[in-house]
Amino acid sequence: MAVLNASTANEHQLPANGSPESLPAADASFAGSNQQVVLQDDCPTTPIEYDGIEVLAPMVRASTLPLRLECLRYGAGLVYGEEIVDKKFVNVVRVENPQFRTVDFVSQREKGIVFSTCKEERDRVIFQMGTADPVLASQAALLVCKDVRGVDVNMGCPKSFSVKGGMGAALLDTPDMASEILKSLRRSLPSSCSVTCKIRMRATTEKTREFMQLCERSGAEAIAVHMRQREERPADPAHWDEIMRVWDAVNVPVIANGDFFTRQQINQFWKHCKGDGDNCGVNGFCAGNGVNLSTSTATRKGPAAVMIARGALWNPSIFCRDREAPPFEEVVRSYTRAAVQANSSYQNTKWVLSQMLAGGTGVIVPTSFCDEPMKAFNRRLSTAKSMSAICEMIREPFDAAAFPEKAHTTSFYQSLELVKAGTPGDPTNENTLAERRPNETNLEDGPTASKRARLTQ
Ligand SMILES: Cc1cc2nc3c(=O)[nH]c(=O)nc-3n(C[C@H](O)[C@H](O)[C@H](O)COP(=O)(O)O)c2cc1C
Fold first, then answer.
1. pTM for the full model?
2. Is 157 assigned a catalytic role?
């Protein structure tokens, strides 16, 4: 295990499989900070392979650990977590939970789990962040980068809380800020952690292409493009035709997102990308409109990967490509088992299940579930007050005695003292449930004004 101490850029040791050149210089703006990164010996050293993969999209409330694990098991190549705002994340404490084999990032104030991950997804999970501040973004990313494959910046969320704070889709109109954030992340994070962004289309093809080029120049290693403009709602059709006019603006892989609800639609999209489908078929999709083919994109005929949001929430087995998807009831049960094993809260589990059982565009769900009409089942599910009650309804065994007190509730960490332990450079600088140390060093509340000033100069 090697230690990269962000406070002393020149003193860091290398990971066993790294080289001095492969590590980026630590951001000078962190001088004096006590944040540190403990790099695991098994950090991946090869770039992410995007060609042909299908990716779970970031979705607030939905893209939590159990759904991510299920999507990976069905065949997703990468999974994005829900957006977490940097301001919130800089106040978390990292806790290794041996009972559930998870790594939990827990807010010090509310004592709630902000982000939870585990070894199974380590090399394929992307942490998505909402940010409008290069320094805060990097501080937050440094806390999680040893536990994830990459960090993504949300540049597409049109919700007012995001945009008012300069985050999400607001970054499409503040390209300098978008660029500073990506550059800061790339400078601060080890090369084993990829830096990417997810954008929406801009008003014209040219503007989208320019923005993508700016992201690439600023260090984005892949760009997910939600094929809608900022003002467009989820019910408006995604512009599959437009992605074919923008995907080749950059050399880095482009991930196409929007309206992949069924396996058939995804397969049709891939066919179009290979240039052997009917032009202008599904969704007005036209293949082969690209211009300026660059060397690395020369062999591609469209985006490298596709990203699925609602289609995967309604049925995560959408990722089954070369095998038959299991029956819907089994998909629901398997998700519930994953939620139990991951210590998901019953509230979150119930919400995800209610979305799955409702289905959506093109995803037809059975009219009954566990021998009960679906509507009645859903109504009963909405009243469940524990994971045990949910499991009973789904007919999954649940042994409450096998789990610690408050497991599967949002108050799991409420009664625990959570402190940032250890000193800079100490590779054991983390909490475990088995061993909690007294309050030695509190996490910084945020960047000081002088740090911020140095970065933006
Ligand atoms: C419930 C829900 C939550 C979402 N949360 C996020 C998010 O946290 N970050 C983000 O970049 N996009 C978020 N999105 C947008 C999706 O990632 C995606 O871009 C959009 O739904 C279009 O994909 P789809 O047509 O496959 O649903 C969310 C979408 C949904 C439905």
1. 0.83
2. yes
